[in-house]
Amino acid sequence: MSMIRFEVSAGVASLTLDRPAAFNALDTSGILELSAIAAELAQRRDVRAVLITGSGNKAFCAGGDVSTFVRESDRVGTLLQEMTDPLNIAVARLMRLDAPVIAAVNGVAAGVGLSLVALSDLAIAADSARFTTAYTQIGYTPDGGSSWLLPRLVGQRRAMELYLTGRTLNAAEALDWGLVNQVVAPEALEESARSLAERIARGPTGAYGKVKSLLLETLANPLEAQLALEARTIIAQSQTNDGREGVRAFVEKRTPDFRGG
Prior knowledge:
10 strands; 2-enoyl-CoA Hydratase, Chain A, domain 1; alpha/beta
C-alpha cells in the first residue's frame, strides 16, 4: 500500500504523506517510496514545482516511525541504516532539483518531518502547525540533513536550543525564526500553497535551479569563488531559451512565456 500520494498537474508535483493514523510518520517503506519519487522527479521535465504536505489536519510528518524501532530493537542499527541510506539520497535529490520545493505544513513537523520543511525552498504553515526536532527526546541524534539545514536557517545557537531542550515552536515562532515564509489559517493552507506552487511552475525553472545551486555553494565558497561562480552561471543562463525569452519580454513590456528551459 502506497504511503505517499503522488500526482502531477499543471507542472506541479504534489506529494502527500498519507498515514494520518500514524501522524504521517515514515517507516522504511515510506522512505523508500520517497526516495523513488525523488529519483523520478529528477528525471521529469514536466515538473516545475514540487509541493509536499501531509494527510489530515494533525500532522505534516511526525518523523520516523518510532514504533518500528521498538518492534525491531534487536536489529535497530541495521534498520536505521536501511532507513538513512535512501533517506539521504532523497534529501540530496530534492534539494538539487531545478524545480523549487514548497512545504505546506498542516500540523506537527517533527524529526525528519522538520527536515522536509527545512530542505524545502519555500514553506507555508497553518497557524496550527508545530515544529520540533524530537531526536534527543528519545535519546537519538539528528538525521535527514537536519544538523546541516537547521543551523543555516535559524543559526547555530537556536538550532542547538532546539536539539538540547526539545523545544516545540508554534507557527508564529517558526515564522520569526525563519523556518517558514508565511503563516495562514488552516482552511487557507491548501489553496495558498497550491497557488504559490502553480505561480512558481510558470517561472524560469532552469534559472530557479541555478539560484538554488548558488545558494547551496555560498557558505562553502570564499567571496572571489562565489563571484566567479555567479558570473559563469548568469552567462550560461543568458544563453538558454528562458533567458532569451525573459529579456525579450522585458523589452517588449509583456509577460514572459517561460517554458522551463
